[in-house]
Amino acid sequence: MNFLVALVAGLLFGAGLLLSRMCDPERVLAFLDVAGAWDPALAFTMGGAVLVAVPAFHFVRKRHVDLLGAPTSLPDRFEITPRLIGGSAIFGIGWGLSGICPGPSLLLLTGGSVSSLVFVAAIVAGFFAARGFDVVTGRS
Fold it and tell me: Average pLDDT per run of 10 along the chain, which is 140 residues long?
């Protein structure tokens, strides 16, 4: 059942990316170009995502289980760490330079473009680098 729920959630997420055209790096970069040809479409897409996520997070925070009854644990919302700031900065820099976010990058892989392959390879390298950093610092 968990697999089915994850599959449906992934398909909905992918459909939303396609419908909003957020899998197009040029569209994302147009949102970031506030001094030029600014396109607010990404703000509306994020707003829609927030409208869906807020009730879901409220449900999980109140009950500490997901819809299938599995226990959940959410990170502390108020703890700001150097790791959080560094990860956010790296994420933002990568997104700003490429116009690609991790979710759409998986969708872009189906087209086989070199930029999407390089981007996903960089994500995988980042995962391994973070894991190695955790081992070195004792955070495993």
Answer: 86 84 82 87 88 89 85 84 84 80 78 82 85 75
What does each C-alpha distance from 39 to 49, 65, 98, 119 come to in angstroms? 18, 38, 16, 23
Residue 140: what pLDDT? 58
Q: How do the domains of the chain map onto residue ranges? A: 1-74, 77-140
Using H for helix, E for strand and C for coil, what is the string for the chain? CHHHHHHHHHHHHHHHHHHHCCCCHHHHHHHHCCCCCCCCHHHHHHHHHHHHHHHHHHHHHHHCECCCCCECCCCCCCCCCHHHHHHHHHHHHHHHHHCCCHHHHHHHHCCCCHHHHHHHHHHHHHHHHHHHHHHHHCCC
